[in-house]
Recover the amino acids of this structure.
């Protein structure tokens, strides 16, 4: 695939790329030295400068007394929407094994890796390069859709669970163990703290909302010959309650803060990153915020690995602000809607930098 957009056949290029079944990693393995047009992102921001904003991502020590932790969680969720946790109790070897398993899977020989490549989930599992069908916002009417510089192994964890029997045990077993341990952590610790911080009782998310770890996305960002010209993950807010993220030491996650800047969310050894997402923003009646984020590719030589575990309520629950959080001073911000309505509303809109929940809003978002 050539690195020019003149007379470029997008459909043919997409067909050729997906037919290779080796993903973005396959391009790197082939020795590509120029970013193919499908991946060009001329409007992506440069690496955000350091020291130009007062935005600080909080770090919360979970070994502190609960009477101290709960107010800290509340403050972080309502002012930042994202925070680190330390002394979380998740064994380091479980995290390290999962990250290593993701890396090893994505770096399997192309002939082996391609057997698992599929655009549509099979048995609740997909391994592919996400396709964004939304045209880029650019002056050219024939702007080429963006593919991220990233391959993803995505696992649906809804009952009866994923069918990963055909995956290498070296990949399958560490990821399923990671899910088991992190799902318990998310429900018993993070879900309970976020619920208690809202003033609705520590068991609200787990028991009332029947919250579960709904899916897990393991991302691999290969090195890139022209990192500034690509995007690892496009602008978005997550369509869940909250996300627990681990990332290796390479980094690349950035968040969009109120003053318009993109700032780094650097990896911090020994921490987990908690990201408040759209549904919890609705349930909290905008008490909690959900922050726009993306991933930039940083290196011509190093690959990046991350694992995101997403928590959702049961599909049977109506999504609406909690009555306890609707007051005369803070009236209801969103109408009621179902999970099906919500997920349908996001189709074709991922990566456009806007929030899906605004179409359910009864009032405009408050300024902050």
């Amino acid at each position: 695939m050539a690195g020019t957009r003149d007379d470029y056949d997008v459909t043919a290029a997409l067909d050729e790329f997906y037919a290779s079944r080796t993903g973005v990693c396959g391009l790197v393995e082939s020795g590509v030295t120029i970013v193919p047009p499908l991946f060009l992102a001329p409007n992506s921001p440069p690496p955000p400068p350091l020291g130009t904003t007062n935005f600080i991502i909080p770090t919360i020590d979970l070994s502190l007394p609960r009477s101290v932790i709960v107010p800290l969680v509340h403050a972080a969720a309502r002012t930042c929407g994202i925070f680190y946790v330390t002394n979380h109790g998740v064994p380091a070897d479980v995290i390290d094994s999962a990250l290593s398993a993701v890396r090893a899977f994505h770096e399997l020989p192309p002939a082996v890796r391609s057997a698992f490549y599929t655009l549509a989930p099979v048995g609740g599992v997909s391994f592919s390069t996400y396709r964004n069908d939304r045209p880029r916002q650019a002056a050219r009417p024939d702007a080429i859709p963006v593919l991220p510089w990233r391959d993803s192994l995505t696992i649906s964890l809804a009952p009866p669970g994923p069918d990963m029997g055909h995956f290498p045990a070296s990949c399958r077993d560490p990821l399923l163990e990671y899910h088991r341990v992190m799902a318990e952590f998310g429900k018993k610790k993070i879900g309970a703290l976020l619920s208690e911080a809202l003033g609705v009782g520590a068991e609200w998310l787990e028991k009332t909302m029947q919250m579960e770890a709904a899916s897990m996305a393991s991302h691999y960002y290969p090195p890139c010959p022209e990192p500034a010209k690509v995007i690892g993950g496009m602008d978005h807010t997550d369509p869940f309650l909250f996300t627990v993220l681990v990332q290796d030491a390479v980094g690349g996650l950035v968040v969009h803060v109120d003053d318009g800047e993109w700032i780094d969310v650097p990896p911090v050894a020994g921490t987990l990153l908690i990201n408040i997402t759209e549904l919890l923003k609705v349930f909290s009646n905008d008490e909690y915020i959900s922050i726009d984020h993306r991933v930039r590719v940083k290196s011509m030589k190093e690959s990046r690995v991350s694992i995101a575990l997403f928590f959702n309520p049961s599909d049977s629950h109506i999504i609406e602000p909690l009555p306890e959080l609707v007051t005369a001073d803070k009236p209801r911000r969103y109408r009621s809607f179902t999970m099906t309505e919500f997920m349908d509303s996001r189709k074709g809109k991922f990566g456009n930098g806007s929030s899906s929940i605004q179409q359910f809003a009864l009032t405009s978002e408050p300024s902050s």
